[in-house]
Structure formats: structure tokens, C-alpha cells
Amino acid sequence: MKMKTPIKLLSLASASLLLAACGGEDTTEDSDASIGEQLEYTITGIEPGAGITETTERALEEYDSLEGWELETSSTAGMMGQLDSAIDNEEPIIVTGWTPHYMFEMYDLKFLEDPEGVYGEAEFVHTMAREGFEEDMPEAYAILENFSWEVEDMQSIMLEAQDVDFEEAAANWIEENQDTVDSWTEGVDEVDGQEIELGSFPWDSERASSAVISQVLEEHGFEVNVNNVDPSILFQALAQGEVDVTVAPWLPTTQGAYLEEYGDEIVDMGPNMEGTVIGLVVPEYMDIDSIEDLEPAE
Questions:
Q1: Which phi and psi angles does 53 have, rounded to 5°?
Q2: Sign of the C-alpha dihedral, residues 181, 184, 190, 191?
């Protein structure tokens, strides 16, 4: 379910100068305007509670080249709408982005280099459980401990889910990757209606993983309730035993602060995906490669 956060549209300044010479009416783009000036020194972001939002706020403090810049938070859908519009018009835009995400399947995009390492190295998505989960639900624990897949798997579901709902996209992926699913459930006994509270985040990447693991668990006899909440709430709920398990946290950077706060009361079952990346993303047609290539606001 998408978070219904108000979207404040980003104003993209694409200035043009009318030249009147000998009665001519040619229009010429103002090539003197910097990327920052064209973007009004604004980065297009997603939800305020997202880990990449907090990391980008740190980047605004760390980089001299981002002095005076602002992060415009809205929603994942809002960010994608503005990215679509900018690319349709071949205008500049800088967004907070990550892989896996279907936008990399749709467009030619690139991450800006991060010399200061604010966004960290490639990350891992972890499976985490409340204390006592293994003893209470050993069959579910075994499946979730075996759960492991690739960035491309999640990304393919996210892309298909632009045309169908996530449940159908997940079901199609499961059917096409039954050998992988069988490796998660091999040797695990079925149960009869045991309920599981699965915690997740309300973003497309986690909607994909939650839809897949929910259906796999349900096929094994579990009743799964998916709780989509912000990261801070999810980690607290795990620590307090209100949620049984999650396959959503990104570590060590994106949700690392929450693990530091609640890690002693949570069981980290290890990564279920590796090679995820977060950072600032631009279209390939933009002549910029690094965050340090930007200029501070005047």
C-alpha cells in the first residue's frame, strides 16, 4: 500500500533566451545556467521516513558542493512521476535512488559517484526476527533462514507490478522460479493455519519481497499478516515482539541506526539479498558523474 504523502511538485527551471537579431525569432537554450540553477538547488526525494532520505540529509551536510541545496521529500510515486516527466522532456533532475528498482529497467540512469562514502558500499537486505521466533515457529524460521534471491529477481517483480498487482507478479515469479522456492522449503514440514506477523515497509522493493515470502509461507500452511510501517516502527515492533519477522531491512547503512538501537533485542538471521545500492541518481544524458561535480547554491 502506498503511503499517502502530499506531493510538492519540483519546479524545473529550463531557461530560454529569445534573440532578436535582424528580425529573427530563433530560440536558444541558456547554456550558462548550472545544473543547480536549473534545478533550483533541489534534489527530488521519497518518503521522509526512508533510510535514503536520512542519508541524503547527511550528504547535504557532508558535501561542500551541496551547500545550500535542499531535499524535496514526497513519495516514491511522486519521485517517479517527476523522473518520468524530466526524462520525457530531456530535462535535468537528481533523485534519491536505489537498486533494485524498476526505473533502471525503464530508463538509462546512473548513480553519481560518492567520494565521501556517505551512502556506503553495496548493501545487504536482511531477514530479522523477534526473540523466541525460532522456538515458537521452527518451520517458518527454517523457510525464512533459507530465503535468498537476487536483485534481478526483485526488480523483475517490481517492473511487472506496474501492470498487475504485486500478488499476481509474485505468483508469476514463483511459478517461473519453482526450483529456487523449493530450495527454501525443502525438508520443512507443513503446518495448519499458524499465524505469522510479517513486518515490511510500504515501498515497492519490500512489497515485492513480502508478496513472495508471504505466498511461499501460505503454501506451507501459514496465515500471514503483512504490516507495512516505517523502519523506526518496524524495528521497535520486532524488539517488543509485536512483529514476528521481516525480510525488509537494508544494512549496514540504510537502517543501520535502528539496528544499533534495537539490535540487542532482535535476531539477525543474515542477508537474503546482496548487491543493493543507494545514492543520488541522474539520467545518463546529464553531463555529470559525481556529487562533487555540483556547485553550492549562491
A1: -65, -45
A2: negative
